[in-house]
Specification:
- This protein is an alpha+beta fold and 387 residues long.
- It contains 11 helices and 17 strands.
- The strands form 2 sheets. Strands 6-7-8-5-1-4-3-2-9 form a 9-stranded mixed β-sheet. The chain has an 8-stranded mixed β-sheet with strand order 11-12-13-10-14-17-16-15.
- The protein is globular and about 60 Å long.
Length: 387
């Protein structure tokens, strides 16, 4: 990041902590729910490949007649994989249009009723009225609003609940629980929206949810020879929730955002960035388990890392040869450096993928890596015939 970009981050963070966003205090990401074609098989994939552990289950055996959901956990991350059980389920409509993808980004709150009231009166569109769900372990209150495309935010209030996950779920006991790979928490989640829609959704997060746009990139910063995009990063009041929002920009060929929109059938979650404390160990394990990552930048990219890191090179603990061998990218700002790598799409449609990120003080999003990253994505697009 340039000094100007860092100053933009710092100014944005100052605005965040002024307290103007107190009408919607968010405690963190509660869970992310995917609609998938086969939840049982998807759960096995995420356990085997990413090291998630069995947590909870809802389905026919628990009295749920229209769907099955498997809940997976690794450290502070909870994933819910949901599949419809009959042809009349509206989940099928989502799957036909989008394929496997994120439906719910659930946010942990102290008061789900207040969260719904405050967002609705500021222009939000209701997805779920405040609903109390009870079982022998207490009660959970949930409410929800729509965001871009068919994606929704569910507000989850669980201060009076001691169960495994939510009412209606039971503990999922399994003898098969591969070792975790060091995934810690969700660092940020990126949404792709259509042409000229980015500022509309920036305003939505500002007005409806009290977020602040603390970092922006235009097509002059995010471009290659062939394609470009624009992005703005939204953050809530305490900085725990960050949602970058991307839109396409004009280029010689079709950008990754256009490819996503075509195959997903509209706006949606493009990727989930997950934090680790040891990216070399995590990526080594993921590769051994079959996870495919984008191709490596050229050797010249790695030769330039010392110059890119500048004063932070002295504090860098990771071995550059190991970083290059694993195709991990490195960037820095005034606060430190970060390491990141991106998987290929995790389903046949070229839509959702994951980022693995290790922050060593840096607050940015790897702006210095954008060109190398997007050139790597374009190589994959070329193989698919979608560039």
């Amino acid at each position: 990041m340039s000094k100007k970009e860092v100053q933009s981050v710092e100014y944005g963070l100052e605005k965040i902590f002024e307290g103007a966003q107190d009408f919607l205090p968010l405690l963190g990401t509660d869970y992310v729910e995917f609609y998938v074609g086969n939840a049982k098989q998807s759960a096995h994939y995420y356990k085997t490949a990413f090291g998630y552990q069995s947590l909870a289950y809802a389905g026919l055996e628990t009295g749920v007649r229209d769907r099955t959901s498997y809940v997976l956990k690794q450290d502070k991350i909870r994933l819910v994989l949901t599949t419809p059980l009959n042809e009349n389920s509206p989940i099928n409509d989502h799957l036909r249009k989008h394929g496997d993808g994120v439906k719910v980004v659930a946010l942990w709150v102290e008061d789900a009723t207040s969260a719904h009231e405050e967002t609705i009166k500021r222009g939000g569109r209701s997805f779920m009225e405040p609903t109390v769900e009870k079982d022998e372990f207490g009660e959970v209150v949930r409410s929800g609003i729509y965001t871009y495309g068919e994606t929704v935010h569910i507000f989850v209030e669980r201060k009076n609940y001691n169960g495994i996950f939510l009412p209606g779920y039971k503990e999922w006991k399994s003898e098969y629980n591969p070792e975790p790979v060091g995934l810690k928490y969700i660092d940020h989640m990126v949404g792709n929206v259509g042409w000229n829609e980015m500022n509309t959704w920036v305003k939505f997060y500002e007005d409806v949810m009290g977020f602040v746009n603390f970092l922006s990139f235009d097509d002059k910063q995010i471009h290659t020879e062939y394609s470009a995009l624009m992005s703005k990063v939204m953050s809530n009041g305490n900085g725990r929730i960050k949602f970058p929002i991307n839109e396409p920009a004009e280029g010689k060929k079709r950008s990754q955002i256009e490819e996503y929109l075509d195959f997903y059938g509209g706006p949606g979650v493009q990727h989930i960035a997950i934090a680790t404390d040891d990216i070399i160990s995590t990526v080594t394990q993921l590769k051994a388990r079959g996870i495919e990552f984008l191709s490596a930048p050229p050797h010249a990219y790695y030769q330039a890392i010392p110059e890119r890191l500048g004063v932070h090179m002295d504090m860098m603990k990771e071995d550059l040869n190991a970083i290059e061998k694993l195709a991990i990218m490195v960037d820095a700002d005034e606060d430190g450096y970060l390491l990141q790598i991106f998987t290929k799409p995790v389903q046949d449609r070229p839509t959702l993928f994951f980022e693995i990120i290790q922050r060593m003080g840096a607050k940015g999003f790897g702006a210095g890596n954008f060109k190398a990253l997007f050139e790597s994505i374009e190589r994959e697009q070329s193989l698919r015939g979608t560039l």
